[in-house]
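This part of the workshop introduces the protein records we will be handling. Getting from the letters to the tokens is the skill we practise here. An example says more than a description, so a record of this kind follows:
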Amino acid sequence: MSNVPLVDLLAGHAEVAAEVEEGFARVLATGAFIKGPDVGAFEQEFAVFSGVAHCIGVANGTDALELMLRADEMPAGAGVLMPANTFVASAEAVVRAGGRPVFADVDDEYLLLDPAAAASAAGGSDVWGLLPVHLNGQLAPMAALAAAAEEHGLRLFEDAAQCQGATQVGRGAGSWGRAAGTSFYPGKNLGAYGDAGAVLTDDAGLDAAIRELGDHGSSRKYVHDRLGFNSRLDTLQAVVLRAKLRRLADWNTARRAAAARYDALLADVDGVRLPRTAPGNEHVWHLYAVRVPMRDAVLAELNAAGIGAGVHYPVPVHLQPAFLELGHAPGDFPVAERAASEILTLPLFPQITEEQQVRVAEALAKALRSVS
């Protein structure tokens, strides 16, 4: 019996292979490897898809977050508030932009930034920005967080690396804050064939500033008005993203169907806490993450049975060695820390079959019985 991968990138490629091959041939024939026509076309198409005015393609998702903060002239040493349970890139980008991560806990139901915790942490005199993370395929509670940002005079941004196509009360990422950074890492709902990312914004000034910063601080060749760096979306990656974007809505629908199937298959399995969709959210299920006791033992059983389960993320950012200088200790953010020991990500991708999901569910039930 074949293994069930956590993500099947080859299945997605098979659906776009002919279109990508044609696009690559077009780029190779013209030599437009940097700033080729496909880059501008993708930026326009993804902006329309996302419901925002501007999309700026960049080299990766971490750069996207850094660039939007730099473009909005974040003061040196300024605090940027974010949830403790995120990928390290959220905090890394703040530090690279010259700021300081400020963490807050998440709610226990959806594991999204808790507005009450954020409002409490926002009172610090050095907190300048608020960076909610849209986790696993759904948006953080943006109306409440926007209200907290307004009350405390904070700049509101969004980490949208995991939510391409998701909405909240009909609004997508990038339409709530001043800008949103997203990632097109290959395993994302909209994934490139390497590293790539983008910034989404409705602000024309930020659009221009981000483009300039990501192109060596230049808006005209050999004229560098500010100190920038090199972070551009490659034309070949834009070809891939354009082909996949045409299928993204259907792929997200398939992800929702797969998540609903897991809900049914696992409803009566003792010890499994299923993920839930927050009110008002249209989830795109980048990840299907359950919570289980004795997670590491369960994960080992699943992997031994050929199930490509994983963990997102086993150590909260505030406890990572790279951020120990911030002075946090275990117990500072108890919900995020508890979840980090329980989270188990199950295989999910648009092409996953019912047979594969049944096998995953049966293997999970067996693993839980084995370790209990």
In short: The longest helix spans residues 235-266. The longest strand covers residues 54-58.
